[in-house]
TrEMBL record:
It comes from the Bacteria. This is Spermidine/putrescine ABC transporter substrate-binding protein. Spermidine binds at residues 50, 98. Its main location: periplasm. GO terms for molecular function: polyamine binding. One of its GO terms (biological process) is polyamine transport.
């Protein structure tokens, strides 16, 4: 009996060992080679250019074993066009506040499960539960910016205190503008005394004529890296995202920030998950990863946009946190104007922008 019991015990132990080995194996990889947490093998991310450092992508890959396929766009219009043309091509993309509602209405994005994003708790109240997505059903805020003016006084000798000053003849061929129709046309409308969200056809025609008058002063349109022309000395003025001005100041401390008399335009970008995304859980894991305070602060070292993460802000260099190009004073924030969804009226902006750009 003792021998028979030993053989039975040995067999049982062998079976148990096999079960444990199988369990360990399944915890690392599923039958399809995906992680046991169901994240899958890859994640397809579509983002603004110069908006997420390679080091963060690598850390996510190392932590999860998920390969990140990363591609970029230069405008919301480009993002929307590619998203419309290829459903299922991307698992995660970025959408500015004013285009979120149209994307929801057109069924382009799907709800996000905030249960998979515990780091959401670090986001400041003023950046969540916005009118364009109450309850953050579809969006998680990433970063934002305003549109101040950067000037190099070594090159520009005329006084600039407002958007309207960009039309001064002394600035011929000296300005780099964002290649962004809503921000730039919004700026032009504000110089005319209108809202940056104006949809009156007569006002848009007026804005078109005024922008055409600005073109002799415009050396280039650049949303990817407008600071480059400022740093090289090819232009003396940049109308750009605030962080680009701050980064230019790192290279050229003489560059000054002008908060225009007309009041700033502000916009905020959000993570959204496209309809048909093949790797939704990996997308949510990635959102949670970059919302970790340490990772969020690391992102702001390379791309110091307005950071909505309360704990990350404690880790960001004072040069950026105290820089008015990125974080305008409280009195300025009271005057900022947010861009809004224009509905079908966006076609007016498309037409005006196209006609202006084709005049180059």
């Amino acid at each position: 009996m003792k021998g028979s019991s030993f053989r039975v015990l040995t067999s049982c132990l062998a079976v148990l060992a096999l079960i444990l080995m199988a369990a360990c194996g399944s915890s690392k990889a599923g039958s399809d080679g995906s992680g046991g947490d169901g994240l899958g093998k890859e994640l397809n991310v579509f983002n603004w250019s110069e908006y997420l450092p390679e080091s963060v992508l690598k850390k996510f890959e190392d932590k999860t074993g998920v390969k990140v396929n990363y591609s970029t766009f230069s405008s919301n219009e480009e993002m929307l066009a590619k998203l419309s043309a290829g459903q299922g091509l991307y698992d995660l993309t970025m959408a500015s506040d004013y285009i979120v509602q149209p994307m929801i209405a057109q069924g382009m994005i799907q709800p996000i499960d905030l249960n998979n994003i515990p780091n959401f708790k670090y986001l400041l109240p003023e950046f969540i539960d916005k009118d364009y997505d109450k309850g953050n059903k579809y969006t998680v805020p990433y970063m934002g910016n305003t549109q101040p003016i950067g000037i190099n006084p070594d090159i520009v000798k005329t006084e600039i205190t407002s958007y309207a000053d960009l039309w001064k003849p002394e600035l011929k061929n000296q300005i780099v503008l964002l290649d962004d129709q809503r921000m730039v046309l919004g700026m032009v409308l504000k110089t005319l005394g209108y809202s940056a969200n104006d949809t009156d056809p007569a006002h848009l025609e007026e804005a078109k004529k005024k922008m055409l008058a600005l073109m002799p002063n415009v050396k280039a349109f650049d949303s990817d890296s407008p600071k480059t022309l400022m740093i090289s000395g090819e232009v003396g003025v940049m109308l750009s995202w605030g962080p680009e001005i701050a980064l230019a100041q790192k290279e050229k401390p003489q560059v000054k920030t002008v908060l225009p008399k007309e009041g700033l335009i502000i916009t905020f970008d959000n993570f959204v998950i496209p309809k048909g995304a093949k790797n939704k859980k990996a997308a949510e894991a990635f959102i949670n990863f970059v919302t970790d305070p340490d990772i969020s602060a690391e992102i702001s070292v390379s791309f110091p946009y307005i950071n909505p993460n309360v704990e990350a802000r404690k880790k960001i260099d004072k040069f950026f946190m105290d820089n008015i190009a990125i974080y305008p004073p409280t009195e300025e924030l009271k005057r900022v104007e947010s861009l809004q969804d224009l509905g079908d009226n966006v076609k007016l902006y498309d037409r005006v922008w196209s006609e202006v750009k084709s005049s180059q």
